[in-house]
Amino acid sequence: MTKSVAFGRKLQHTTPQDISLQSGPPAISIRNLGLSYGGHKVLKNINFEARAGKITALVGPSGCGKSSLLSVVNRLSDLQACKVEGEVFIAEDNILHSAVNVLKLRRRIGMVFQKPSPFPMSIRENLLFPLREYGVKGDQLEKTLEDNLRLVGLWDEVKTRLNDSALVLSGGQQQRLCFARCLSLNPKVLLLDEPCSALDPRSTQIIEALIWHLRESHTILMVTHNLAQARRLADDVAVCCLSDGVGSIVESGKTAQVFDFPAHPVTAEYLGFETAEVRSSD
Amino acid sequence: MYRHKVDIKFVGLLRLLVMLAACIVLLIFGFLLTEAWPFLFSEHGGQLFTDAVWHPTTGQYNLVPVILGTLYTTIGAVSVAVPFALATAIFCQFYAPRWFGRLYTSVMEVLAGIPSVVYGFWGLVVLVPLVASWQGSGASLLTGILVLSLMILPTGTLLAIAALKQVPSEWIQGSYALGLSRWATIKNIALPASGHGMLNALLLQSTRAIGETMAVLMVCGNSTLFPFGLFEPVRTLSANIALEMAYAMEMHRAALYSSALVLMVMVFILLFLNQFQNRLESTANGKS
């Protein structure tokens, strides 16, 4: 039996509560990953590690395939007509193996998107309906609702209007609700696809504080265009760049090392240019 | 706001065309009312609902069996077509390979373009004998319902697919990212979010079914008696007009215009419900 089959089976009888009882956050190891859409290669030779319980920022210019890379880690890429090569290990299991139970995998790997996307239902139902689908019942539902809304700092703002539509919340509140929805399933890995890019500075600050709070208990892989944000939050950085129209990781390592002493000329050019721009805009 | 002279002229032209189009509806309504007036506002007017039967040659004008025939065929056809349209749309949008979805959509578009007389002819030579071999004469309410449901199914399916496609992809993706199955996503996200479009499709198909003439005329048996069962012949309002207008004179003719007016009012009610539902939806969205 391959390791990935074991991973799939391990998850088969778990509930969101069981997952929280499992050991700490796992490391993610991406090896020789390639991705192509209809014969057109988008990513090639992707190799890097996201350390367990750390924040790894994935930075790089637009269109270099960062978000596509993220979608491979929870197999959302399966929904698109694309071909994935290589291996993605979470802990010791290759999640790209065909025998892996994808639904259970996604439950273990939370994802928050660039655009806040609460479902068109009440604030309460946004959190409760996924839990109900997983068989959580009774008082546990309300407890999970309150715990997770408190965790993201939203409880005091919405506790009196839990039955209102989630679409009436502000952008920042909606994004925090999406975090709460994702965290209510107790994932150990979080994939964040530019979670602050559509938010105002105040909301960005709150979300950043939340991401910082979630590190250590989660392995976080975050795509960001904001180099200052990557520097503030990330333990490690992987730089993705385009070469001949195909994205690849040109450099990865500890944040301070990559930012202060980039080893690759492409990284130096990208970071130098962007940093200068950020500083001038500040 | 500054507007260029060309814009002003163009907007003026558009307004004129819009008003002309709106006037056509008013003219049709006015024409029907004028023609039906001698019947509706004479001593015969009440007969539409009180006479024993529809038998114009003996001066009896009970339209209730025909109105019921119209309602039964419409409600029956919509009830049969909706589950199929919904199931097909869900399959094409969420389960079928993309090439199959595209192919199926094309087939539905072709089916939607087939003239109603072809459906009626098929019903007459295939369905009527089939139903007759089961019970009755074959030309019945059931046959009408089946033919009509087949006729509204293609457009209903296309509208249902369009409604599902309008659900924002981030909601669907967000649901999948939570590890929810396709069915959980369809049940909790896609169907509630597309409900407005689905209801629109339902009402539009109901208006089509209510006004369909040729096919139902060919397969329904056209009896003007009260229909008491699925295997009994019925006549619809539109078939009634098509069958009798050619030889109708004086009061009979005015009675037929009255039945056309009733048909038009039924269609208006459905369109009004559609508009009302649209308004409710946009008010709810505005609040959001």
Low-confidence stretches of chain A: 1-21, 275-282
For the sheet with most strands of chain A, the description reads: 6 strands, mixed
CATH superfamily of chain A: P-loop containing nucleotide triphosphate hydrolases
Which ranges of chain B are low-confidence, i.e. pLDDT below 50, for 5 or more consecutive residues? none
Largest interface: A-B, 28 and 20 residues
Going across the major beta sheet of chain B, what is the strand order? 1-2
Strands of chain A, total number: 10
CATH homology group of the largest domain in chain B? MetI-like
- Give the domain tally of chain B: 2
The helix tally of chain A amounts to: 12
Distance between the termini of chain B: 29 Å
Summarize the amount of helix of chain A as a percent range: 40-55%
Helix-strand pattern of chain A:
HHEEEHEEHEHHHHEHEHEEHH
Mean pLDDT across every amino acid position of chain B: 89
What's the number of structural domains of chain A? 1
| Largest sheet, strands/sense/barrel of chain B | 2 strands, antiparallel
Structure, explained:
The complex is a heterodimer of chains A (282) and B (288). With 282 residues, chain A is of the alpha/beta class. Chain A contains twelve helices and ten strands. Chain A has a six-stranded mixed beta sheet, sandwiched between helices. Chain A has a four-stranded antiparallel beta sheet with strand order 2-1-4-5. In chain A, helix 5 (123-133) packs across helix 6 (139-151). With 288 residues, chain B is an all-alpha fold. The model of chain B has no long low-confidence stretch (mean pLDDT 89). Classes of the chains: A alpha/beta (282), B mainly alpha (288). Chains A and B meet through helix 4, helix 5 and helix 8 of A and helix 7 and helix 8 of B.
